[in-house]
Amino acid sequence: MRYSGRRKVAGLRREEVAVLAGVNVDYYARLEQGRETRPSPQVLDALSRALGLDPDARDHLYRLAGATPSDLPSPAPQTVSPELRQLMDGYPHAPAFVLNRVLDILAANTLADALFSPFTAADNLARMTFLDPAGPQFFARWEWTAQATVANLRAAAGDPALPHLVAELSEGSSRFRTLWETHQVRGKTREPKQLVHPAVGPLTLTYQAFDVRGAAGQQLIVYQAEPGSPSAEALSLLRSVPLRVRPGAGMP
């Protein structure tokens, strides 16, 4: 790895960067000069923090060093930007919401709030699936949903919020405990969601998932129905369903 050009952090000298990163000044000088070519992931993480690199710059640093990011995920922001909320509100005919790695619902548009209104608290998809009484009725293919949910949570390994959530779900659901022991891991699939809403009946929805740039671990999920289908009509009817105010809804 060889450093090229001026440092991007104004006012930091080589010695200051080394101190912030917790490395020897001579070692850091060798990195800049290309005389040290195999820095460890821990050193690269420390330098990323010291230099205030954004995710793209951090990934580029790893590529320059011929390394891969450390296994521990970066801390995921728990708030959703105003710009993303505005984007979700621009989908009046499609439920849209933002998830983090452990399936917390961080924000939702009006139609998503209406879709999830049968649940006591639409705060986390895993809790909604395994612990809320509405789960087995809402998810028409509950067993498939349960397996997919557990597999998604497995993919969040290393997230600091995961152990507490797993303990809560294990205590409250024997089915979760059994599935968790299978150790299956997978991300979100593209299979249609088959749901049953007590106010409008069955819904078959496809969806798209988008990684949120600049907010590691967040995904924007957008559900949609086939145009002209009974599910599209049901979604239109959902817009008139009275809503409860979900904790945190509408907060920046």
Secondary-structure blueprint:
Layout: H1 14-21, H2 25-32, H3 41-51, H4 55-64, H5 82-89, E1 96-99, E2 105-108, H6 110-115, H7 125-130, H8 135-138, H9 142-154, H10 162-172, H11 174-180, E3 193-197, E4 201-211, E5 219-224, H12 230-238
Antiparallel strand pairs: 1-2, 1-5, 3-4, 4-5
Helix pairs in contact: 1-2, 1-3, 3-4, 9-11, 10-11
Descriptive report:
The chain has 252 residues and is α+β, with helices and mostly antiparallel strands. Among the domains are: 51 residues, no CATH class; 112 residues, Beta-Lactamase, CATH 3.30.450.180. It is 40% helix and 12% strand. The protein contains 12 helices and 5 strands. Strands 2-1-5-4-3 form a 5-stranded antiparallel sheet. A hairpin with a 5-residue loop joins strand 1 and strand 2. Helix 1 packs across helix 2. It is elongated.
User: If classified by CATH, what would the architecture of the domain at 82-141 and 187-238 be?
Assistant: 2-Layer Sandwich
What kind of oligomer do you see?
single chain
The CATH class assignment of the domain at 82-141 and 187-238 is: Alpha Beta
Question: Structural class per helix/strand content?
Answer: alpha+beta
* Mean pLDDT over the full residue set: 83
Q: Measured on Cα atoms, how large is the radius of gyration?
A: 22 Å
Percent in strands:
5-15%
- Biggest sheet strand line-up: 2-1-5-4-3
Helix content: 40-55%
The H/E string reads HHHHHEEHHHHHHEEEH
What CATH calls the topology of the domain at 82-141 and 187-238 is: Beta-Lactamase
Report the biggest beta sheet as strand number plus sense, adding barrel if it closes.
Answer: 5 strands, antiparallel
Query: Tally of extended strands?
Result: 5
Provide a count of the helices: 12
Low-confidence stretches: 1-10, 245-252
What gap, in angstroms, lies between the N and C termini? 40 Å
General form: elongated
